[in-house]
Every structure is written in structure tokens, then in C-alpha cells.
Amino acid sequence: MRHLETRHLDRRSNIIRFGADGWQARLDDGFDEAGVRRVADSLGLLWAEAHPGATVLVGYDTRHNSAEYARAAACVLASFGLRAVVSDRPCPTPVVSWCCSRRDDAVGVVMLTASERSCEYGGLIVRGADGGPVSREFLDTVEQHISLEPPTDCGELRVENFIDPYLDDLVTLVDGAAIAAATPSVIVDPMYGAGTGVLANALERLGCNVTEIHAGPCEDFCGLHPEPADPWADECEETVSSTGADMGFLLDCDGDRAGVVDENGNILLPHELSPLVLGHLVENRGESGRVIVTLTCSARIARQAERLGCQLTSVPVGFSRIYREMLEGDVLLGAEEYGGLAFPSHLLERDGLLACLLVVELAAKSGRTVRQLVSDMGDKIGHMRYTRRDVRLDPAATQAFRNVLPGLNPGSVAGRRPVEVSHADGLRLQFDDGSWVLMRPSRSDPVVRVYSEAPTEGERDRLLDASCGMVRAGA
After folding, report:
1. Rounded Cα–Cα distance for residues 405 and 441 (Å)
2. If exposure means fewest CB atoms within 10 Å of the residue's CB, which of 238, 241, 242, 399 is most exposed?
3. How do the domains of the chain map onto residue ranges?
4. What's the predicted TM-score (pTM) here?
């Protein structure tokens, strides 16, 4: 077994850079088995030093060579004396994270996935012992210990079924009797990803009539971009509409985010899904606790939380911020702008499969269709129009805007005076009717993301146009 103190590090090797939760790169621009082995080597080194003999779970999605890369990573991890256990088939990230959180001997997860990115990308994400994200400090340390050459050492890996134990638990989290009595007809679209057969299995066990599309093995996703949003949701929407199904569900490639399609074949926006699920948790299931959202989430979930008497905490963009709040306890729901929902009583990580089951339960117990439920919610909390626009600049201009942003405090935008100004994550301006706008430079790309929400599309777009103009002028 190798040790940290005996290892020679070549600092020139630090060419693999991690994003928020791991490494993603194009398959034709650096993501390959050698890189995977190098990252696994650094992870194994650090985990073995801190937790000798601990278990690491390794999962993978359906992308090109993901299974082979997962086994290569496991062999490297095992060479440090760690117990490396690989999934026996492609599995969603929530599955392997949940399994890790239930094992006392587990120190973390390595998941081979690029989530919702297109087939041209590969990825390796890292999770901690509780199934949630690891710290930025840990990722930085992993980066610093990545060797120039891939290791040749190889230990013995183990293979296990992660999916069945997860499903056995998942189906107990909703009212199976109520769902079976309603016998809803459901279209499931795993978008050729790791959720293939998994969500469909859970729904069938609960008594749903399930039709699964885009489920066959297809490494290039047959032209789909595995993101549960339009236009990639078109075929699922059309199938729901043409077959008269009660609803449809889409999963991104690793299953941590879901999309919901109503009975008319229209996909719900994330800003509709989050408050809908929150209302179900509180009003129908009697649950309580804080609601954690990112600053870019719709005002609708804030209104829903206020209506239900839930304390709301807003944090800067990034699931790691939600995770840190969940560690503090008393959290009912964590919600991201793009529709990722985390239920900390189940897992300190987003789980698109559980979100789908909760929607089925809500429809079954209420006797209402998905669109009726969304309309009912709008009557209670009001209707808002949300959008985002990316202002692309050159790197120097993006940095210039980032530099002036802390001192930016406009007296009016589109002729309207803000009632609240926040620099917590970019510049967020709140107006007296609940409208708001946010200007936020990307942390990784030369772009400023501008968000706007208002009761009408016209007012929303006026705020958006004025704010984009402010970004260009400031750059």
C-alpha cells in the first residue's frame, strides 16, 4: 500500500482542474482513462491516509467507456488498501450516494458521469461519506496531488448491486396504496441515461402503468442532450399527449434532476415544480422544516414557503451552499434554480427519482391532474414570469464587470426604484411587487448571467433589457 509521505509530486501535473464537484471535460480534449486513473490515484492517496481500509463506492452512467473508466478508477483506489466496490450496472448518482450514506465503513463516492452534458463530455464527480458533496478545500487538495503520469498499481475491485436496496427503500417513502388505487398512466424518459429501468421499476412497483421511452443503450444518446428541458423533452411531451397518459417524467443522465410533463404534454418549469412539491410535503404529508433555495430561484417558492409558514433561507448559487445548510439540520427541502431538489430526511443530495414519486403521490391523493395542481398553486401564490439571459463578453470585460460590481448600486432600473439591494452573489435588485433582477458573473466562463422575474412578461423583459445594458456599460 502506498503512502503520502513517500510520494514524489510533480507540480507540473496540475493540469486537471475541478469544477464544483469534480472533473468534466470533452472526450476529445483530455477526458480519458489515463486522466481518470490519475484522479483516482490522488483520491485514493488522500482517503487511504485519512481512513485506512475504508470503502469507496464507484458508480457510472451510460456514456462512452463509463463502465471501463469506473473499473479502472476502482482498481487504482483498491491499490491503496481501500475496499473499492463498483456498481454492477449503470446507476443514477442518487443511488450510489444513498448506498454510501447507509454504510458505516464508506468514506466516499466516485461517480463517472457528466450529468446533463452532451455525449461529447465525460466526467468524474466526488461525494463524501454522507452521500453529499465534498468541500472545495478537499477538491483543491486532490488537484494538488494529481500525478503527471497515470499509476500502474492495481488492486482488486468488488462488484455489488446498488440499485435494488435503494429501490426497496425508495418505494416506502410514498403512499403506495393511494398510488395503486389511482393506477396512473405514466411515461418515463430516462434520456438514455443511468435512470433507464430504475424509475420505471419503482413506478411499476407502486402500481402505475408505465411506458418507458429512450431506454435502450445508446452511448451518443441518439442525438438527445440528456437534460430534462425543452427542446430535448419534445418526444416525451408528444408521447404523453398522443397516448393520453396522466403525466410524464424525464431524468437527466445521472438522475439527480427530473422534469415533469403534465397531461397536456407541457413540461413544468423548475419554478413550478419546486413550490408544488413543497406544498405537498407540508399540506398533505404534514412535514415541516426550513426551505433552502439559491438566490436565482423563483419568487414563487419563497411565496409558497411564506404561505405555509416555512422559514426560507437564500444562499449563493451552488448546491454545496444548500448542502452546508442541510448539515445544520431542520431542513425540509433544498431547491436549485435548474430544478434539482434535495430531501435531507432521505439523502443530503439531489434526487430526481424521489421528486417524481412525490408528484405521482400528490396527483393520486388529490385526484387532480398535474396542470390543475399547478393552476391551483398559482391561484394561491400568484403567477410570475421568469427568464435568464447570458451576456457573453471577452474575459477582460467579464473581469472588469466583476471588479465594478461590488460598488454598483443603481437608483432605478427600467424606471423602477429597487426596495432591496443585495451583493451576496452578484447584484440582486428587488422591487415592491415581488419582481427582481440578478446580474451574476459566471465563475468559470466569460459570461454574465442575468435573471429576471415579474408578474408579466413585458415587465420582466424591460427589467432584463435594462440590466443587460447595465452589464455591457459596466464592462
Report:
1. 9
2. 242
3. 4-161, 167-381, 385-474
4. 0.93
> How far apart, in whole angstroms, are the C-alpha atoms of residue 410 and residue 429?
9
Q: How many CB atoms lie within 10 A of CB 390?
A: 12
Residue reference for cell 433589457: 465
Q: Calculate ∠ Cα 321-327-333, nearest 5°.
A: 70
pLDDT, tens digit (0-9, with 9 covering 90-100), for 335-390? 998 889 999 999 999 999 999 999 999 999 999 999 999 999 999 999 899 999 99
Identify the helix (H) or strand (E) that includes residue 170: helix 163-170
Sheet with 185-189: strands ordered across? 209-212, 185-189, 247-251, 258-261
In this structure, whether the domain defined by 385-474 belongs to CATH 3.30.310.50 is answered with yes
Q: How far apart are CA 365 and CA 302, in angstroms?
A: 25
Please give the Cα distance from 313 to 354 (Å, whole number): 22
Q: How far is CA 57 from CA 48, 114, 136, 291, in A?
A: 14, 17, 20, 30
On the 0-12 / 13-18 / 19+ scale of CB atoms within 10 A, 51 is: middle
Cα(182)–Cα(208) distance, integer angstroms: 8
> What class, spelled out in words, does domain 167-381 have in CATH?
alpha beta
- Say if 4-161 and 167-381 have the same CATH topology: yes
What's the CA gap between 299 and 434, in Å, rounded?
Answer: 7
Domain 4-161 homologous superfamily, CATH: Alpha-D-Glucose-1,6-Bisphosphate, subunit A, domain 3 (3.40.120.10)
Phi, psi angle pair for 202, to nearest 5°: -60, -45
Instruction: Name the nearest CA neighbour of 149 among 267, 300, 16.
Output: 16
Cis geometry, peptide bond prior to residue 231 (ω within 30 degrees of 0): yes
Q: What are phi and psi of 58, to 5 degrees?
A: -125, 125
Q: What is the pLDDT of residue 20?
A: 87
Residue 144 backbone dihedrals phi, psi, to 5 degrees: -65, -20
First and final CA of the chain: distance in angstroms? Answer: 53
Q: Three-state SS for 110?
A: strand
Residue type (1 letter), 111? M
Q: Which residue has the cell 433582477?
A: 437
Computed on alpha carbons and rounded to an integer, the radius of gyration of the chain in Å comes to 23
